[in-house]
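Revision sheet: structure tokens.
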Amino acid sequence: MDTQELLERQSFIELDARSRAKRLLDAGSFNELLDPFERVRSPWLARQGIVTQADDGAVVAKGLIDGQPAVVLAIDGGYQGGSMGEVSAAKIAGSLELAAEDNRNGIPTRAVILFETGGVRLQEANLGLAAIAEIHAAIVDLRRYQPVIGITAGPIGCYGGMSISAGLCSYLIGTREARLGLNGPAVIEQEAGIAEFDSRDRPMIWSFTGCEQRHRTGLVDVYAADDTDAIRAAVIELFRAGRSAVCRSERVTGFLQRLSEIDPGVQATPEQVVAIYGKGFNS
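Predicted:
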């Protein structure tokens, strides 16, 4: 790519959650539901001395993508690390449920979820976990009718219970800057020791959980440049491809077979992981 092309790019990562949603939707179709002026915020954070945000860190935007009805659910990684509380997770789950209901009523609404999140908001604990479980159920329901596309683009990545949400999506898009994993590096180091995972070793972390590696191992479908137009084009292409015949989360037998080839007593390398996972995940 030459210098001019680089200059003409618009970074998707540098956009805030609301701007990302707006740029993914067709021009002029953006309509935010439960916007900040509605003041639907967490009832729990203020009691703990934490400043609340009027949208609770989740943007729900309805509009069109490629001329078809769609909802974009964007998590604001700048607020509480993109963590999911009762309100933010309920906004996402409720929107997915309404999209599924649209499909049952003959309106082919699809969904895009922008994952910039460390998972559940610790200050809301079980309330957040319960709401994330509702997101999981809603994704599985909606993907019976339309593709559900997940995008993780920024350095916060996607972790915790929301990484399960990402795994349930019909398709996943990731950038070089993003990471995807169930547990974050600091948590792994805390539980298994620095010899297992050094949370300060950034090259090592990205070599295992970065989206380039996740794409090489078949856990991310599209490895995209940090370019707004390229990511929107990838979303449109995946929607045009239609529903997956078998979603990744349904390939249980294949994943168990690959896991059985990994020796937990030996420190893995990124190359070994690629070699094992590169064999595929037949159901």
